[in-house]
Every structure is written in structure tokens, then in C-alpha cells.
Design brief:
heterotrimer; A mainly alpha; B mainly alpha; C mainly alpha; A: mainly alpha; 3 helices; about 0% strand; disordered N terminus; B: mainly alpha; Cytochrome Bc1 Complex, Chain D, domain 2; 2 domains; 9 helices
Chain lengths: ~110, ~210, ~500
């Protein structure tokens, strides 16, 4: 892709200190129970594999969940690798700007 | 996409989604293949056969036209059809089929439900239910006579005070004394529910229920 | 840095709205959605009337409340929500990505196929049981040990008859392809809405396959119960919720003319949902024979998902910020934020009712029904009404026929829904105690009558709101033919 178009046309998105703080705090708060849930599922899987009574019922949903989560984890890595989180606040500005441009064409 | 390192993750991600989809088929095939699932023929028991014979005696003409004789094989057929009707008419949206270990349910209905009760063809998919407008039915078999059920399906409010249950006249050829094949099958199915247990309480007999 | 300039470059030779968006298909989807919503609400009213003994059609086989109850739920999920979402996606995805959908003929094929799927499901549910008693069906059932229901299958929202399931799956796969192509072609970091949409395409397909195939074909008994619970849960959580939030992240900033408070936080919420939401299905069947350790796991993760919800709510109210007055003046915004308040109530309720203590009392009662209405109507339907209120004037190229009727639609829908929610929640508590007290069963149904009667009127209020909307839409649309033809391409697309 060409780099000719000056990105200065667009307003830059910054993140206020409060936004950054709330985002980080929520990320941690969500991550910990998420990890708990994930590890829990994994332990259940092991539990069942060892033959907990009646446990085979859960294998299909758990395996489904583990595989889908693995899929999303790969997607997360893919996104991170592609720099999608590097300038994390910019898409919200770009998208509004695009909307404005699209509407400028069509709306009198 | 394929040439970049990140593309590997992208493809792996899609791959995992596909695996998750395929797992739906593979897991049951691998995990549950040794579990025996009872067929409709195998779940026919003495109690439900008695009820089936009672239907033959009570509504001889209708029964002969619908099922011929009251054999175990015909009874299994009636159970299959009865369950199809039960599901198709949406009975399971107002009647659950499992007794919980809480809320006095074992006193009202009987023994708490166990996993083994659901390992049969007639619980495919399982009919736990999500709402009880009417009572739970998993211990309904033998609680009431076939004639009661016939009248109840025809016009619930004649035997059940103020019941909000809809009427099902299409299970009958004109009157509650003439259940058709669908009606006979559904009554057989309802009489089968719980018939695998030795006994359960008749909650109408409980002191609290009678209001004594 | 490069990624941003790529986006900027894309803007340079940016395509026009008319090339990107096929407005006609959006209108078609919306008309279909509103048709199914009308059918669904009529079916709901029929069931409500049955419960209070006022059903004038008692004993008519094809209008049996038992069958129409399934029409009620299926028409809402697959007829109204799915159609309205698909229509809106045809607006949002091309505009977000600057690329057309994969193929317009494919879009139209999907549209027709989806209406056929929903219509045939309805027909199957209504006439299936009448023709169930066929010797060849019984032979098949005996041979394969399968349910073989011509009509509904015995799983909530999985009632879609077995002979339609493969077609529906194919349809969902085509939907995913049709929208993933433009998303894949777009350059640069993705806006959060696109993440949500992508996840929804993947999840809907997986969830539908799991729920409609496994319990019917592969597994019997309790294991199927665990899967069925996951299906009911994930259909709301992984099909409706991500599409709903994705659209909120799209429309709210546009209408408020300011960016979302924190894009980073929205992504945290998205990934939290991605890893977290699917865990909880079994909480629909607590105290069943499903192993207890699984039930505990589901309970804990459900309570924890409230944190994810909190991020979203913080973010949107942060976006509203000092523009709070828009809530009163801007009708779509009012719809959106009302829905969000209801969403917060729903999720708060989730965290409570999922505990075993609450389940003892309220499982199987009308509390659950109230909860379901709050989330499906109070949240997602209100959001879609808001989106339609915003988009119809743009699609038709003229303002609403009557702003007052739009207001009526809002007030009747949201007040009716809130009354119904409170009423059913309270009814659930009463029913739970009637049952636990071992009184005769009649006590619970008689004691529910006042609540059920209130529910009928709440439902009629919501339906009146819909009628206002339909009449308003009809008049607005008809204005198209009467008035002079506008040169704007919105109007051109509408004719």
C-alpha cells in the first residue's frame, strides 16, 4: 500500500489517563476470572478423562469450547501480530471519519 | 496471507473452528459408542403393557383400528408415536420431565431423577423442559386411569379444576370415549413416564396437599 | 503507523455509498423481519390468552397454542432478529470495510433461502404433528432410533424440523462467506464492530450445528441436556449478543457524532466475551442429573461474565458523557440506551438467578419467561427498532410520516415490556413458593391468574406499539408513490 496520503488529515486519537487506567483495570479484572474459567474447563476435561462418574456427558461441549477458544486465541495472536492493537484508539476515529465522507457524497 | 508468519495463526484459528465443528460429530462417535442406549422396545415394561391392554379393553374398536392387538411390539410403536406427538404438540413447553432434589419436589413427585432414566431412545433429545405451567410428568405413569387422561385431553377443565391447558379434540374421533391413534399413543406415552420406577408417592394423598 | 496510512489511502479512492450498499435488500429484510415479528407477537398473545382461559380458538388443531408457542419463539429468533440483523449488516459491513459484499446475487439467494427456511419451519411446526402418523416415518424412526418429527424437535429454539436443519446450516455458512469477504479485503486495524460481526458468523454456525444435530442424532439423555443448555444459552450469547453489540458500537458513535469513549476497553470486552461467554450453558439445567462439578463451573463463570458486561456499559455511558440530553431528543439514541439499561438489568438478574439458591425457587417459573422477554425484546428488539427508526428515513429518502407515532412506538414498547418483565418476575416468585409449599397444583395456576391477566395487557401494549410503527412505516412508504420522485439515490433505491 502506498504511503502517499498524509495521515495528518485525520484527527489523532489519544487516550486519556483515566481511559487507559479503566481499560487496564478492566482487562486485569476480566483476565483473571477468564483464566480461572479456562483452567477450570481444562481441569474438567482431565477429570472426565480420568473417568469421573457421569462425566462423559460434558466432553462434547467442553471440547467444543476448548477448540473454539484455541481458534480465538490464534485470531488474537494474528491480530496482535498485524499491529491491530498498536494504535488502539485510532480505528474509532477513522471509522467516524469514513462515515462522514460516505455521507457527504450522498446527502445534500 | 500464506507467506506471512501471522498468517499461520490466522489459518490455525480457522482450523480450530473447523475442528470444533467436526468435533460435534467425532466426540460422540468416539466417546459414547460403547454406552448402551435403550430402544423403545427395551423400555416397554409390565406396567405400561398393562395400561396398553387396559386401553385395548376400554376402547376396543378404536384400539383395534389403531394398533390391532396389545402386544409389546405394538406398545413400543405407540411409545414412539406418542413421544413424537408429545414433542410436536409442544407439551414439553409446559410440562417438565425431571424431579429436582430441592423445593420439596421429591415429596410431591417422587424419587429425584437419575441419569440412567434418560439413557433411552425416547429421550432424544432429552425432555428436561424449561417451564412448568402444569406439573412435572416424569412420575405421571399410573397416577391416573386411562379414561381420566382421555377426558383430560379432550377437555381438561372437566376433570382438572380451572386448568389453563388447551383442549386437544383432534386426538379423538368425536368424543372423549373415542380416542384415535394419536390419542391412544399419547396416553400410552404419558402412562409410561415413570413406570420404570417401583413406586412414587401420590401427592394428592399428602396431608399438605389435601389441606388437612 | 503503516496500517493507519493504509486506511487513509483507502479513503483516497473511496467508493461511493451507492456502490457499496444495496439498499433494496435492506428494505426487503426489514419488511420480512417486521412480518415475522407481527406473527410472533400474535402467537404470543394467543398463548397468553390461553393461560387466562380467554382463548377464543380453543380446540382448533392448526391454531393450537402449544404449536403456536413455538412459532412465537422461533419467529422472533430466526424471523425477526436474524432478518433485521442481516438487513442491517448489509448496511454496516460495506460501509465499515469500504468493500461490497462478496456477491449481490448471493445476497439475494440468501435472502430468499432464509425466508424459505423460516417459513418452512413455521409450516413444519404447525402442520407437522397433524401428519406425523405415517407408517414410513415410524419405520424410519424405528430403524434409525431417531425422533423423526415432521414438526418440531424437542429442544427450545432447536425446534427447526430435522429436514430443514442442513439447509439452514448451509444458509449460515453462505452468510459468513458473503460478509467475511469484505471484512477480509479491508485493510488496517479493525474497528470493534467488525470483530463482533466476525465472531458472530463463526459462532452462530458452530452453535446451530451443535444444538440442532447433536441432541437429535448423536447423543441421548443427560449428555444431550448439557448440550441443549449450551445451545439455548449460546444462541442468545453468541449469535444475538455479538451482532447486537457490534451494531451498537457502530450506530451509537454515528448518532452521537463522537467516537466511542475507549476503543481499547471495547476490545477488552470483546475478547472477554470471546473466551468467556461460551462456558455457561449448563446453568440452564441446574439440579439436573448433569454432574455437579460442571454445574458449579457454569455458575461461577456466569457471575464472572458480569465484568465483561460492565466494560461495555461503562464504555457506552462514557461515550454519552455530557451529551446526556441526546437521550431525550434523539429517538434512536433513546432506544439504544434504554436497551442498554435493560441489558444491565438482565445481566444483573443473570448473576443472581444463576445461583443455586435462586434456582431452587425460580427454576421452571415465569421468572425465567420474564428474563427471556427482557433480553429478547427489551434489549435486542429495542435496539433494532432504534436502528430501523434511524435507517428507514434514509432508505426511503424521506422523513417519518409522523414523529408522534415513532414516540408512541417507543413508549408502548418499552413500558409494555417493563410491565411484563416486572409482572412475570413477581409471578415466578409466587409460583416457586406455591410449589414448594406442596399446595395442590391448582393453587399455583389460580394464583398466577392476576399476573397472567396483567401479562396479556402488557403484551397488547407492546403489540399496539408495533402497530403504530407499522402504520407509520406504511404511510411513510406510501408517501413515496404520492410525492414527487426524489432525485436522491435513497429514494431511487426504495422504488
Amino acid at each position: 500500500m502506498s504511503d502517499t496520503h498524509p495521515s495528518a488529515v485525520r484527527p489523532r486519537a489519544g487516550m486519556s489517563r483515566r481511559q487507559a487506567w479503566v481499560t487496564a483495570a478492566m482487562a486485569v479484572v476480566i483476565l483473571i476470572p477468564s483464566m480461572y474459567g479456562f483452567v477450570g474447563k481444562f481441569l474438567e476435561f482431565v477429570h472426565i478423562y480420568r473417568g469421573a462418574s457421569g462425566g462423559e456427558f460434558a466432553v462434547a461441549p467442553i471440547l467444543n469450547y476448548l477448540l473454539a477458544s484455541a481458534g480465538f486465541f490464534c485470531m488474537l495472536l494474528w491480530a496482535a501480530w498485524n499491529g491491530m492493537f498498536r494504535d488502539i484508539e485510532q480505528p474509532k476515529i477513522d471509522f467516524l471519519e469514513n462515515e462522514r465522507l460516505l455521507d457527504r457524497d450522498t446527502r445534500p | 496471507m500464506f507467506e506471512s508468519k501471522s498468517g499461520i495463526f490466522f489459518i490455525a484459528g480457522i482450523g480450530f473452528f473447523l475442528l470444533a465443528f467436526l468435533g460435534n460429530g467425532a466426540v460422540p462417535m468416539l466417546m459414547y459408542k460403547d454406552r448402551h442406549e435403550q430402544t423403545a422396545e427395551e423400555v416397554v415394561n409390565k406396567k405400561v403393557l398393562n395400561q396398553f391392554a387396559d386401553l385395548a379393553e376400554r376402547y376396543p374398536e378404536q384400539f383395534r383400528a389403531a394398533f390391532g392387538e396389545a402386544s409389546a411390539e405394538r406398545c413400543a410403536e405407540a411409545l414412539r408415536l406418542g413421544r413424537q406427538i408429545y414433542v410436536g404438540e409442544g407439551c414439553w413447553h409446559c410440562h417438565s420431565q425431571f424431579v429436582r432434589p430441592v423445593s420439596n419436589e421429591s415429596r410431591r413427585y417422587g424419587p429425584v431423577s437419575k441419569t440412567e432414566e434418560y439413557d433411552n431412545e425416547l429421550q432424544r433429545p432429552v425432555l428436561f423442559g424449561t417451564r412448568r405451567v402444569g406439573p412435572d410428568l416424569s412420575r405421571e405413569g399410573g397416577r391416573r386411569g386411562n379414561d381420566w387422561h382421555a377426558v383430560h385431553f379432550y377437555r381438561p377443565r372437566t376433570v382438572s379444576n380451572n386448568s389453563p391447558m388447551p383442549e386437544y379434540p383432534w386426538f379423538f374421533d368425536g368424543g372423549p370415549d373415542k380416542p384415535n391413534r394419536r390419542g391412544l399413543a399419547l396416553i400410552t406415552y404419558v402412562q409410561w413416564l415413570g413406570s420404570w420406577l417401583d413406586e412414587y408417592p401420590y401427592y394428592e394423598e399428602l396431608a399438605e396437599v389435601k389441606g388437612e | 503507523m503503516t496500517s493507519r496510512s493504509q486506511t487513509a489511502a483507502a479513503v483516497h479512492d473511496r467508493p461511493a455509498h451507492g456502490d457499496l450498499v444495496d439498499e433494496r435488500i435492506i428494505l426487503c429484510y426489514y419488511v420480512a423481519a417486521l412480518t415475522f415479528l407481527t406473527v410472533s407477537m400474535l402467537a404470543g398473545i394467543l398463548m397468553a390468552l390461553q393461560l387466562v382461559h380467554w382463548n377464543p380458538l380453543n380446540g382448533v388443531e392448526l391454531l393450537s397454542p402449544g404449536r403456536w408457542r413455538m412459532i412465537h419463539t422461533n419467529a422472533v429468533a430466526y424471523g425477526f432478529l436474524a432478518n433485521a440483523f442481516l438487513g442491517t449488516l448489509h448496511w454496516a459491513v460495506p460501509r465499515l470495510t469500504f468493500h461490497k459484499v462478496a456477491s449481490r446475487p448471493l445476497s439475494w439467494f440468501i435472502f430468499v433461502a432464509w425466508q424459505a427456511i423460516v417459513g418452512l419451519t413455521a409450516i413444519g411446526i404447525i402442520v407437522g404433528p397433524t401428519f406425523q402418523d405415517q407408517p414410513w416415518l415410524l419405520d424410519l424412526a424405528k430403524q434409525w432410533r431417531l425422533p423423526m418429527n415432521l414438526g418440531a424437535q424437542g429442544l427450545e429454539w432447536g425446534e427447526t424440523p430435522f429436514w430443514i436443519d442442513p439447509v439452514a446450516l448451509l444458509g449460515l455458512a453462505l452468510v459468513a462467506v458473503n460478509f467475511m469477504v469484505p471484512i477480509g479485503r479491508s485493510k488496517g486495524p479493525m474497528y470493534v464492530s467488525l470483530w463482533y460481526f466476525m465472531a458472530a458468523f463463526v459462532w452462530t454456525f458452530l452453535t446451530y450445528a451443535m444444538g440442532n444435530l447433536l441432541p437429535e442424532y448423536a447423543v441421548a439423555g443427560t449428555s444431550a441436556g448439557a448440550i441443549g443448555g449450551l445451545f439455548i444459552h449460546d444462541l442468545v450469547g453468541l449469535f444475538v449478543t455479538p451482532l447486537g453489540w457490534g451494531l451498537m458500537y457502530y450506530f451509537v458513535p454515528i448518532l452521537l457524532k463522537r467516537p466511542i469513549w475507549s476503543h481499547g476497553l471495547s476490545l477488552v470486552g470483546f475478547w472477554g466475551l470471546a473466551f468467556f461467554y461460551p462456558l455457561q450453558g449448563i446453568h440452564h439445567f441446574l439440579y439436573t442429573p448433569i454432574p455437579m462439578f460442571l454445574q458449579y463451573g457454569a455458575v461461577i463463570s456466569t457471575i464472572a461474565v458480569e465484568l465483561v458486561v460492565a466494560t461495555v456499559v461503562i464504555n457506552f455511558f462514557g461515550t454519552l458523557g455530557k451529551k446526556g440530553s441526546e437521550f431525550f431528543t434523539n429517538l434512536p439514541i433513546r432506544y439504544f440506551y434504554t436497551g442498554m439499561v435493560f441489558y444491565f438489568i438482565t445481566c444483573f438478574q443473570c448473576a443472581l438467578q444463576v445461583t443455586l439458591t435462586f434456582q431452587k425457587l425460580i427454576h421452571f417459573t415465569d421468572w425465567v419467561v420474564g428474563h427471556a422477554h427482557l433480553v429478547m425484546f427489551g434489549v435486542f428488539s429495542l435496539w433494532l427498532f432504534g436502528i430501523m427508526t434511524y435507517l428507514f428515513p434514509r432508505l426511503l429518502g424521506r422523513p417519518w410520516y409522523s414523529r408522534t407515532l415513532c414516540e408512541y412506538h417507543y413508549w408502548l414498547s418499552s413500558v409494555g415490556l417493563f410491565v411484563m418483565f416486572l409482572d412475570l418476575t413477581l409471578a415466578g416468585v409466587f409460583q416457586g413458593w406455591y410449589w414448594a409449599s406442596l399446595q395442590p397444583w391448582d393453587a399455583s395456576t389460580d394464583g398466577s391468574q392476576p399476573f397472567w391477566i396483567t401479562r396479556v395487557f402488557a403484551g397488547l401494549t407492546m403489540f399496539a406499539g408495533l402497530l403504530c410503527f407499522l402504520f407509520n412505516l406504511w404511510m411513510t412508504w406510501r408517501g413515496a408513490e404520492a410525492a414527487e420522485r426524489s432525485t436522491s439515490q435513497f429514494a431511487a433505491a426504495a422504488t
